[in-house]
Design goal:
8% of the residues lie in helices and 37% in strands. The protein is built from one helix and eight strands, in the order ββαββββββ. A hairpin with a 5-residue loop joins strand 1 and strand 2.
Length: 122
């Protein structure tokens, strides 16, 4: 099976998670070849944590798993779009449905979504 071009960007590619039902962008993370293969094998969104330098199965500790329903690769093979079902409605570690909960107004940010849960430890 063909893979994205992980060698093109030093082994890490941006991976965008999008809600399969609403189209809302939930988060952006990174995937390496190991995360890609784990995602394919399990059907659960798996990323490479740049802060922990380790494989990260989304929701493994929080329970907010992302079940991958469609996996797309861009035309250059250097970005991945995961269309997912988000368990529990929370994708962001700060407790929001999406990591994109701030709106920029001039030089200020304004929160535009309700927090659904307290922030997680990591």
């Amino acid at each position: 099976m063909p893979e994205p071009d992980f060698d093109k960007r030093g082994g890490l590619l941006p991976a965008i998670a999008q809600d399969v039902h609403t189209g809302q962008v939930l988060m952006v993370a990174y995937m390496n070849r190991e995360a890609w293969r784990h995602t394919l094998a399990t059907g659960k969104a798996t990323y490479w944590s740049t802060s922990r330098n380790a494989l990260w199965v989304k929701g493994e500790t929080s329970g907010h798993v992302q079940h991958v329903r469609e996996l797309l690769v861009d035309c250059d093979g250097d970005a991945v779009l995961l269309r997912v079902e988000q368990v529990g409605g929370v994708a962001c570690h700060e407790g929001y449905a999406s990591c994109f909960f701030r709106h920029v107004e001039g030089e200020d940010w304004r929160v535009i979504a309700p927090r659904l849960e307290p922030p997680s430890a990591g």
